[in-house]
Structure formats: C-alpha cells, structure tokens
Amino acid sequence: MLRRMSQAAVILVETSPVETVLACAALALRPEVMVLHAEDLREASDLLGGAPVALAILGKQALGAADGRTLQAFVSGGVPLVGLGVNLPESLHKQALAAGVQQVHERPREWRAYRSLIADILDRVLPLVEQVDHRV
What we know:
Elements: E1 2-4, E2 8-13, H1 17-28, E3 33-38, H2 41-46, E4 53-58, H3 60-65, H4 72-76, E5 81-85, H5 90-99, E6 103-106, H6 111-125, E7 128-130
Parallel strand pairs: 2-3, 2-4, 4-5, 5-6
Antiparallel strand pairs: 1-7
C-alpha cells in the first residue's frame, strides 16, 4: 500500500503577511504538511539543514531575487521550486524559470481556486513512500 510521507516540510518564502496567511491556510488543509516560513531566500536556504523539504513555494519578492546562485542550495538538494504571486509580470516568470523554478503561477483570486491550485501542486510533488506494516 502506498501513502504520502508522514510529515513533509514545505518552505514558504514570502514577505507579505496576507499572502503568508493565505498560503498557510491552504497548506494547513493537508495534515501531512509542515510549513516552514522564511522572509527571504537566504533564510530559506538555512532551513534546508533541518527536516526533509519536499517543496519550496516562492512569493513575488523571492521570485524577483531568484537567480542560479540564490537557488543553488534548493536545486542541488533536489527541492522543487514553485513560484506563486499576484500580478506577476511576464519578465518575472521568465527570470524565475531560467533560474531553476519549475513552475510559476498567478495566485487565483478566489479561495476555492487557490486551495485547488495548492492541492494540485502538493499532489504532484509530495513523494509517495511504501508503507510497510511490521506488525505480525
């Protein structure tokens, strides 16, 4: 039987309190997700040494600061990077994708669509592990 990892860490790199609350609310709907918050990419890369990180979600400001050098710790650690923000210019999309961000999404304005987007992202990146029952 396959099931999701028992506790998957997601790093949220966001400076906006409103965007942070929205993302945390959507992520909280998944009990297997532990959210680690960082204000910038340097602080986020420091979090990589703790719990295994399944995903990093980058807000608008983090996307603007993203380049190959700032994302190196995530890329070399195999951590998928997803960008999410409001009113993201096309140039920011291109810059983020060139830097190693796998996906960039405009944040939906409606809660259901936002919640669904977060769920879809998590479904694609959270690894499945085999659950072994050791009871006899």
